[in-house]
Please model this.
Amino acid sequence: MSDPTASEPGIDTPPGAAGPEEQGTPVDDTTLGGYFRVHDRPPAFEGPDGHPYTVSVEVEKVPDLRTPYEGFLVFPRWAQNGLGIVGHVTTPTLWRGRSADEVRWTAGETPLGAVQDHLHAAVDEAGPED
Model:
Protein backbone atom coordinates (compact mmCIF):
# COMPACT_ATOMS: atom_id res chain seq x y z
CA MET A 1 0.00 0.00 0.00
CA SER A 2 1.30 3.46 -0.75
CA ASP A 3 2.12 5.95 2.00
CA PRO A 4 -1.17 7.78 2.69
CA THR A 5 0.69 10.71 4.20
CA ALA A 6 2.49 11.45 0.94
CA SER A 7 0.95 13.31 -1.95
CA GLU A 8 -0.34 10.82 -4.50
CA PRO A 9 1.78 11.07 -7.69
CA GLY A 10 -0.27 11.81 -10.79
CA ILE A 11 -3.52 12.10 -8.86
CA ASP A 12 -4.08 15.76 -9.68
CA THR A 13 -2.26 16.18 -12.97
CA PRO A 14 -3.15 14.60 -16.31
CA PRO A 15 -0.34 12.34 -17.56
CA GLY A 16 2.35 14.43 -19.28
CA ALA A 17 0.88 17.79 -18.18
CA ALA A 18 2.27 20.46 -15.90
CA GLY A 19 0.82 20.59 -12.41
CA PRO A 20 -1.91 23.10 -11.51
CA GLU A 21 0.55 25.50 -9.86
CA GLU A 22 2.71 25.53 -12.98
CA GLN A 23 -0.37 26.31 -15.08
CA GLY A 24 -1.38 29.19 -12.77
CA THR A 25 -4.71 27.49 -12.08
CA PRO A 26 -6.14 27.56 -8.56
CA VAL A 27 -6.51 24.09 -7.08
CA ASP A 28 -9.98 22.91 -6.04
CA ASP A 29 -9.83 20.85 -2.85
CA THR A 30 -13.30 19.34 -3.34
CA THR A 31 -11.84 16.53 -5.47
CA LEU A 32 -9.61 13.75 -4.21
CA GLY A 33 -6.57 14.95 -6.19
CA GLY A 34 -7.19 18.59 -5.32
CA TYR A 35 -7.42 17.75 -1.65
CA PHE A 36 -4.06 15.93 -1.74
CA ARG A 37 -2.49 18.89 -3.56
CA VAL A 38 -3.88 21.64 -1.29
CA HIS A 39 -3.51 19.91 2.07
CA ASP A 40 -0.56 17.56 1.36
CA ARG A 41 -2.34 14.73 3.18
CA PRO A 42 -5.25 12.38 2.53
CA PRO A 43 -8.77 13.49 3.40
CA ALA A 44 -10.39 11.96 6.48
CA PHE A 45 -13.95 10.68 6.69
CA GLU A 46 -16.21 9.26 9.35
CA GLY A 47 -17.51 5.86 8.30
CA PRO A 48 -21.06 4.68 8.88
CA ASP A 49 -19.63 2.54 11.70
CA GLY A 50 -18.44 5.67 13.54
CA HIS A 51 -14.74 5.00 12.88
CA PRO A 52 -12.39 7.57 11.34
CA TYR A 53 -10.92 6.64 7.93
CA THR A 54 -8.39 8.08 5.51
CA VAL A 55 -8.09 7.11 1.86
CA SER A 56 -5.40 5.92 -0.52
CA VAL A 57 -5.59 5.38 -4.29
CA GLU A 58 -4.12 2.04 -5.31
CA VAL A 59 -3.26 1.07 -8.90
CA GLU A 60 -2.43 -2.43 -10.12
CA LYS A 61 -1.30 -3.83 -13.45
CA VAL A 62 -3.71 -6.41 -14.86
CA PRO A 63 -3.57 -8.70 -17.92
CA ASP A 64 -6.00 -6.61 -20.02
CA LEU A 65 -4.36 -5.37 -23.23
CA ARG A 66 -6.81 -2.48 -23.72
CA THR A 67 -6.66 -1.14 -20.17
CA PRO A 68 -3.75 -2.80 -18.39
CA TYR A 69 -4.13 -0.74 -15.20
CA GLU A 70 -6.97 -0.59 -12.72
CA GLY A 71 -7.50 1.46 -9.61
CA PHE A 72 -9.45 1.22 -6.41
CA LEU A 73 -9.60 2.92 -3.03
CA VAL A 74 -8.23 1.60 0.25
CA PHE A 75 -9.65 3.14 3.42
CA PRO A 76 -7.45 2.57 6.49
CA ARG A 77 -9.65 2.51 9.63
CA TRP A 78 -8.06 4.40 12.51
CA ALA A 79 -8.47 3.73 16.21
CA GLN A 80 -10.97 6.04 17.85
CA ASN A 81 -8.07 7.88 19.52
CA GLY A 82 -6.33 8.24 16.13
CA LEU A 83 -3.14 6.56 17.34
CA GLY A 84 -3.01 3.68 14.91
CA ILE A 85 -4.63 1.80 12.08
CA VAL A 86 -6.91 -0.99 13.29
CA GLY A 87 -8.20 -2.30 9.96
CA HIS A 88 -9.20 -1.28 6.45
CA VAL A 89 -11.84 -1.66 3.77
CA THR A 90 -11.41 -1.52 0.00
CA THR A 91 -13.60 -0.79 -2.97
CA PRO A 92 -13.88 -2.96 -6.03
CA THR A 93 -12.13 -1.69 -9.15
CA LEU A 94 -13.37 1.83 -9.87
CA TRP A 95 -11.14 2.97 -12.75
CA ARG A 96 -9.33 1.38 -15.69
CA GLY A 97 -6.79 2.97 -17.98
CA ARG A 98 -3.88 2.60 -20.38
CA SER A 99 -1.35 3.81 -17.79
CA ALA A 100 -1.03 4.01 -14.03
CA ASP A 101 -0.88 7.82 -14.27
CA GLU A 102 -4.12 7.90 -16.28
CA VAL A 103 -5.88 5.85 -13.60
CA ARG A 104 -4.48 8.02 -10.79
CA TRP A 105 -5.53 11.19 -12.57
CA THR A 106 -9.06 9.86 -13.15
CA ALA A 107 -9.24 8.90 -9.47
CA GLY A 108 -8.05 12.39 -8.56
CA GLU A 109 -10.99 13.92 -10.42
CA THR A 110 -13.42 12.12 -8.09
CA PRO A 111 -15.43 14.51 -5.89
CA LEU A 112 -14.93 13.98 -2.16
CA GLY A 113 -18.67 13.31 -1.73
CA ALA A 114 -18.34 10.35 -4.10
CA VAL A 115 -15.27 9.12 -2.19
CA GLN A 116 -17.34 9.17 1.01
CA ASP A 117 -20.11 7.25 -0.79
CA HIS A 118 -17.51 4.63 -1.79
CA LEU A 119 -16.39 4.42 1.87
CA HIS A 120 -19.95 3.85 3.06
CA ALA A 121 -20.51 1.13 0.45
CA ALA A 122 -17.20 -0.57 1.36
CA VAL A 123 -18.01 -0.56 5.09
CA ASP A 124 -21.51 -1.89 4.39
CA GLU A 125 -20.07 -4.62 2.15
CA ALA A 126 -17.49 -5.63 4.78
CA GLY A 127 -20.21 -6.10 7.39
CA PRO A 128 -19.82 -5.78 11.15
CA GLU A 129 -16.41 -5.97 12.78
CA ASP A 130 -15.34 -9.16 14.48
In short: The radius of gyration is 15 Å. The CA atoms of residues 89 and 125 lie 9 Å apart. The beta strands are 44-46, 52-54, 56-61, 69-78, 85-90, 95-97. Residues 20-126 form one domain.
